[in-house]
């Protein structure tokens, strides 16, 4: 093959750094080694890629610039193929599907996903809603490799699981809502005249649990967290929100935490992480950010 990944990367480096010596420093080789690679490429292709004038930076010729522009598209793909092959050799999976629940998509979990992306840059991360995986065995094509969600009473067949966190609830409302301007602690009676935005029944919150957090006869049920969040921020009603999600919004003055004269914090949801035992190194690395396996 006349055009190799090495030749392309060297040509790109010379064009972008402006010298053979700078390109050499980038790859830890001598300027003459870089020049030899470029010269061999020119000889094999029977073209001149760079105009060389003593005392001046090498400049791409017309054909050199055309190949350089193509190289900018091709070289990263070739490098990605090489890295992926190395990842396979090392046993690193090429894709990881993580299922999350909207009410537990906490900032610290998002940062862990970000860290996973940095640690394994060639890994394809597929983030889905946990309810899309209900009833699927871990070896199913659409199943999640890792699940972070409120713990359920039944065991997740085929997964290992560990409870590592919990949801602590806070009653919150938009600063534009009338409840935000009431002085002192609020009673249950104060909430009765206002709409409550509440989760719909789902695999994690049955009718009994939903009823335990209801504080108003006027309800708007939301099947997805993004719906509840949007209505809440627009001042449509008050709601219970996980402290881990509400605190940043309260700090940004987007929400106000209601002070109540009754105890509502005894309703807690434990959070578990569940994972397929067949996880590769990247998946295990991610799980170990939360639990020791």
Descriptive report:
The relative contact order is 0.14. Strands 4-3-5-12-6 form a 5-stranded mixed β-sheet, with helices on one face. The two termini are 46 Å apart. Helix 7 links the parallel strand 8 and strand 9. Helices cover 39% and strands 19% of the residues. The protein is built from 10 helices and 12 strands. The model has no long low-confidence stretch (mean pLDDT 87). The chain is α/β, with parallel strands linked by helices and 293 residues long. It is elongated, with a radius of gyration of 28 Å.
* Cα end-to-end separation: 46 Å
- Report strand %: 15-25%
Q: Which percent bin holds the helix content? A: 25-40%
Number of helices: 10
Radius of gyration from the alpha-carbon trace, in angstroms:
28 Å
Number of β-strand runs: 12
- Unreliable stretches: none
Q: How would you sum up the global shape? A: elongated
Strand order of the largest sheet: 4-3-5-12-6
Q: Which structural class best describes the helix and strand composition?
A: alpha/beta
Question: Could you give the order of the helices and strands?
Answer: HHHEEHEHEEEEHEHEHEHEEH
Give average pLDDT, whole number. 87
Largest sheet: 5 strands, mixed
Strand and helix layout:
Layout lengths: L4 H13 L2 H8 L3 H15 L4 E2 L7 E2 L1 H29 L4 E6 L6 H13 L4 E6 L16 E5 L9 E8 L1 E5 L14 H5 L3 E4 L7 H6 L6 E4 L2 H9 L4 E5 H9 L4 E2 L11 E7 L5 H7 L6
Parallel strand pairs: 3-4, 3-5, 8-9, 8-10
Antiparallel strand pairs: 1-2, 5-12, 6-12, 7-10, 7-11
